[in-house]
Amino acid sequence: DKLLLEVKDLHVSFDTYAGEVKAVRGVNFHVNRGETLAIVGESGCGKSVTAQTIMQLIPMPPGKIKKGSIIFDGNDLAKYSDKKMESVRGKEISMVFQDPMTSLNPTMKVGKQIMESLIKHQKMSKDEAKKRAVEMLKLVGLPTPEKRVEQYPHEFSGGMRQRAMIAIALACNPKLLIADEPTTALDVTIQAQIIELMKDLQIKLDTAIILITHDLGVVAKISDRIAVMYAGVIVESGTSNEIFYEPKHPYTWGLLKSVPRLDLERKERLLPIYGTPPDLFSPPAGCPFAARCDYAMKICKEKYPQKFGITDTHHVHCWLQHEMAPEVKHPLAEGG
Ligand code: SF4
Ligand code: MG
Where in this chain does the entry annotate a coiled-coil region (predicted)? Predict the structure, then answer.
């Protein structure tokens, strides 16, 4: 069975004094073993909440899974108790975050932080765990790993800390790695190295990856498939080629316009998407992107766009795909 994770009709809300924030509003996606799915969208679109819900890392309350299932390797994680999740986190599914300083323990040697999960989940002896910690630091490309295991996080540079985080996350050889903006805090050269490293490790270890990012440029090299998220829903999904070369949703066009194009002669101005996402206390009944969309029609404001299949792998929620809609050529097709 190649299917590893299937998220079905997931709804996640947060109770606040101002009312219920509907952060995730019916999300569906799957991840196959060993592949990379990127979830892309602006901040606040629900991508991090989705990831944290898979790991049960959202505070409940005020957070709540209102509906849906998270089938991982045949079991529904949405029904797992906190205690049962303990045996999944770090062992079956691991997570790396944007800022390693918040997830690394500053008072504990890096080697010891890798050893902890090995001793807990793999029941390794201290000596075995230490040997494995050195191997892991070597695997993530840290020079002199024997010295590095004995050092504290503050003795590492930003890029090295992110490598150490990845070493911790992968130590128990999880089936799934969730990386939430793993390179956002790093400068561009280091970003590229970390992405390269993740791709390399994925091939070596056969780990599936969910890569969460606001930057479509980051995902280009590493993703097999891409899901574009907006205002708590997935508006378009497809293979990387489909999303990059045949995008169908106006929001995806906007995201692509803000990626620097290396294949264009002229230096294109990066175009921001004007406007702000809808309020998630009372999301609109129609298309959530309507208020910002250059192509919005009457129906867009009234009715939520159904799912249109472009290919077996490519789906979009946009009324432009309706047979009655006018034909619109996406702006990138004409060469930017
Ligand atoms: Fe724009 Fe309408 Fe498509 Fe929404 S459904 S993205 S408003 S054209
Ligand atoms: Mg986030």
Answer: none
